Sequence to fold (321 residues):
Amino acid sequence: MDLLEAILTLLGATVLVYYGGKFVLFSRMFFPKWCFPLSKTFFTSMGEWAVITGASEGVGRAYAFALAERGMNVVIMSRTKATLDQVAKEIGSYFPNVTGEKTGRTVKVVVADFSKENTFATIEEEIKDLNVGVLVNNIGVLPNIIPSRFLESEDLDKAITNVINCNVKTLCKMCKIILPGMENRRKGVIINIASGIASFPCPLYTLYAASKIFVERFSQGLQAEYKDRGILIQAVAPFGISTRMAHFQKANIVTLLPEDFVQKSLQYLTAGEKTHGSLCHTILGWLLHSIPLKVLHSEYVLQKLQNYIEKKIEQEENGST
Fold:
């Protein structure tokens, strides 16, 4: 009886220590400025330039502004030159420094259609002489505007190619282009944008969620390989952000504006190899993991989700006419 009592006591203490440790780690998310501090020169110490894919709008545009604000010159990439030129013009205006003076930023526009096979040779040529300290792999596409079952995707072959090229291949190719310079200098930051819905098997978003799980695993493996070389690699997996992909949903406590999300996510840059980028999205991720998959995968829930997004798109279209 004494032995059994000792075993149970030890087991209870082990469980208590384990979950106590997890709580302490989680509690750090409430105080990022104190728990994950970054110096004012952190980003510029990595290199002169930041490269951002999918930077013409939304999250990519917000990262471009945020990194320029932190003193970096930026290379912005997307397939729409007119939009990139407008973003470049806005970033090329001035950011005040701590003394109130004005400091200009250099912005380089690279037009790139990441759904195409031959875009990376041009990119490599355009940035070969730049001291790139930060890479943000943001580009990503959804196979369908309205979530649907895999076989119901419109032009499925094209959807598969686009998702793999933009969400998977581009991630690997951009790292292949930029990582060698970071390794040589023994410093650099790579931020790979994943998705919160990839945290669990996600019907109706099957192809997209699977591509974003690749982003997570690739980032985690790459961080293990290059952490000792002074390179920080992080997967950021947000939930709701008010972008075109989310049909510009109204911002609230869960659905954040791109600018707000990016500012928050940069506070968690040293918080680990994967974050949800903000406290509210971290809590949402924990809550979703607490719901049994049978509930999330039920026909009722899936139908409600599909109907909700169809309604949002209809309201969007009616509002623009």
About this structure: The first strand starts at residue 49 and ends at 53. The radius of gyration is 21 Å. The mean pLDDT is 89.
